[in-house]
Amino acid sequence: MHHLFIPPVLWAVLLGLMVYARETLPLGSLLDTPARLGGVAVIAAGLGIQAVAAGQFLRARTNLHAFGDPDRLVTDGLFALSRNPMYLGFVLTLAGAALLLNTLSALAGPVVFFLVANAWYIPREERLAEAIFGDAYRAYRARVRRWL
């Protein structure tokens, strides 16, 4: 069952709930309309980070699926700045969507994604990476932060 709850599915569910919350439980505005347009830039940054990081995995010919075993340890490019740039991209796209939706209730989306990634997806992946790559992963983890 947990294999069905991959990060893109969680992201899509949360985005749908954010839109639904805007219509049913808006809880007030976040920003004036011109400032909301910054949400587009935040979404673009998140999508760009995801695309670059996914491209790095594809070029390294390593598994992109969150519940699969990694084939190679990718530590360069965006992965030299964050051990989890794809998750960072998901959080940013949801944060940008929250800005566009312009309601406090929509902020729950990026917060929930961050919490689930930090408590479930990432720890699982870190255990696997340490078991598979050993000292190389431990050295990488010591020099690169989990998020930023």
Q: How would you characterize the overall build of this protein?
A:
The chain has 148 residues and is an all-alpha fold. 66% of the residues lie in helices and 0% in strands. It contains six helices and no strands. α3 runs antiparallel to α4, α4 packs antiparallel against α5 and α5 (108-133) runs antiparallel to α6 (135-143). The chain is elongated, with a radius of gyration of 16 Å. The model has no long low-confidence stretch (mean pLDDT 93).
Give keywords:
6 helices; mainly alpha
Tally of alpha and pi helices: 6
List SSEs in N-to-C order. HHHHHH
**Structure classification:** mainly alpha
| Average of pLDDT | 93
Strand content: under 5%
State the end-to-end distance: 30 Å
Radius of gyration equals 16 Å
- Strand elements, count: 0
- Outline the low-pLDDT stretches: none
Helix content: 55-70%
